[in-house]
Design goal:
Blueprint: E1 19-21, E2 27-29, H1 30-38, H2 40-47, H3 64-79, E3 97-99, E4 106-108, E5 118-119, H4 121-134, E6 154-156, E7 161-163, H5 165-171, E8 183-184, E9 207-209, E10 214-216, H6 218-223, E11 231-233, H7 234-254, H8 256-325, H9 332-341, H10 346-368, H11 386-393, E12 397-398, E13 406-407, E14 413-414, E15 418-423, E16 433-440, E17 451-455, E18 459-462, E19 470-479, E20 482-483, E21 490-493, E22 515-517, E23 523-526, H12 530-537, E24 548-551, E25 560-567, E26 573-580, H13 584-589, E27 621-626, E28 629-631, E29 646-648, E30 653-658, E31 663-668, E32 673-679, E33 686-693, E34 696-700
Parallel strand pairs: 12-20
Antiparallel strand pairs: 1-2, 1-5, 3-4, 6-7, 6-8, 9-10, 9-11, 13-15, 14-15, 15-18, 16-17, 16-19, 19-20, 19-21, 22-23, 23-34, 24-33, 25-30, 25-34, 26-27, 26-33, 27-28, 28-29, 30-31, 31-32
Helix pairs in contact: 9-10
Pfam family, one: zf-RING_UBOX
Organism: Acanthisitta chloris (rifleman)
Subcellular location: Cytoplasm, Cytoskeleton
Length: 704
Amino acid sequence: KGIERELICPACKELFTHPLILPCQHNVCHKCVKEILLGFDDLVADGGSGSSNQSSPRIRKSSSMDRIDRSSRSASQRRSFGWRGRRRNSLTPRSTLFHCPGCQRDIDLGERGINGLFRNLTLETIVERYRQAARAAIAIMCDFCKPPPQESTKSCMDCSASYCNECFKIHHPWGTVKAQHEYIGPTTNFRPKVLVCPEHEMERVNMYCEICRRPVCHLCKLGGRHANHRVTTMNTAYKTLKEKLSTDIEYLISKESQVKTHIAQVNLLLKETECNSERAKEEASQSFEKLSHVLEEKKTAALRAIETSKNLRLEKLQMQVEEYQGLLENNGLVGYAREVLKETDPSCFVQTAKQLHYRIQKATESLKSFKPAAETTFEAFVVDIAKQEEILGDLSFHSSGLEIPEINEERSRMYNKALISWECPGKTDSADIYVLEYHKLNREEESVTWQKIEVCGKSKVIADLDDDSSYAFRVRGHKGSICSPWSREVILRTPPAPVFSFLFDDKCGYNNEHLQLNPSRTSVESRAGFPLLLGSERLQVGCYTTLDYIIGDTGIVNGKHFWAFHVEAYSYLVKVGVVPSNKIQKLFHNASDITSPRYEQDSGHDSGSEDASFDSSQLCTLVTLGMKKFFIPTTPAAPKDPASRILPLPSCLGICLDCDRGRVGFYDAGRMKCLYECEVDCSGIMYPAFALMGGAAVHLEEAV
């Protein structure tokens, strides 16, 4: 009875029937594997009856005796379904991925699927011994007797059937091959005499793969999946594993007193957990009762204020009704005035008529400009609960021990997608799951709607964000029903346009003597070496400098596009920008680029007057970087002070090309801030362009 839990299939919660060993080393019934692979609903539709549901993975565990009864009743039926010795039913699974009910992981069964799994014959034997010990009083009947069948006396392992004495003599005549069959006492567990390879069904397994931890045959080792794996003989593996298992069992037995102590401690923890849970329920109930009491008081006060305002307004309106009723003929004020007009004594009339005339004038004015004495709407009494509703929505168990995660802005980045990474200050009491929320910053929207994502790790990639937009991100951890406070909100901005992907072109104009590309063509490096020295050695005056150009392998025809890259801090001179296709050949033919015409040997002067027309003669639109600086080009709109045109070099730079508007912008890609923008001729196909001189390196930004 104590080992019964080890003999229960994790899928159907019944005693194992023909268990198969999965690659994760868990055991599952053969029938359960088929049901999980093909789908429970299909199995029921094909002929689902009460018997087919008994071992279904959806049926809950029943009593031990019921399991034994069902297993015994269906034992003879299973033999008729083709499970004899090495035979296997033909089954083509829908997928080679199998969700193991033991470890809850998706297991790859390989190309052969269920046919590539071993039967656990040892476990079958243990289950049969357990069944016989539990139901020793129930006899196994002969499979060949005419009704009524007799009790069997022996079972043939070769025929996989049980016989009484008479039937055994009939089906195993003396002097025939069947007389040599192996027979044992009555049983329902017919295991094959030898374990055969599931991939080579006629071959006996005689080796053990130490890499895959499974038995293999010699064909698997010669040309199969285990050709390059380390294997050992079956006898060696048997002795080694049996020795290890025996040693581990002896160790566990020797620690029996310690195990009992732990069991007692766990039992105490169970009781303590029950008590603490009841206490926590009571405290939570009291908290909600306090909150409910506060809400009830607020509700009562609000209803009382509305009722008071209603009574006051009704009183004013009623008085106004009475005043207007007095203006009717023979009623109220008008009736009284008619009676006053009947007075003939002048002095008495004047004495009374003065006050009456004032009231008549006031009533006349009120008729000319009618205004209700009180408002009928109660808009001032509308309770705004939006903020409180949001707070109540976030109401949960907060723990001071659960640390507040912090979004790492250095590791988080916005490019083709958003990569948000966070970390906890300490290592203790980390959360089981994190909730990441984000929303787009929009000044027009009054209310904020957060998008929520549950994350098991400490980073998340978010796609489908709007271009040229700012987003706020926050995260908090959850551990069971406890959650930490929200982290500090971090605002990140998306690129101004969709990300344009390309590699450095290693064919068009690429100078492999001066430039060096990495194998993936995402980085280019320029090194000052002997070619530069040999070129400048011939010159006695002036300055000889070369720019080595390289372009992207993909062009842009229209639309708006953005790409980013890193320039190494040690770089002496780098130019970045765009070049049209009709000027690429001229760009590479001008191998030497003089930094300023004033130093040309044939210019004949040092006036610098030629600098004014230098920009107009450029073949492509480039900006200069180097020595950890970003240089804004000289234009009429640029600052005249040279120092104000020099900016610190950002860690990551970006270029935004808008072919439709004919403009190109250069960005600090970390903050998505535009540093410089100018017009560009986009009449042809535009290519990303880079120029390096001396020691320099450029690395394209890796896509998220």
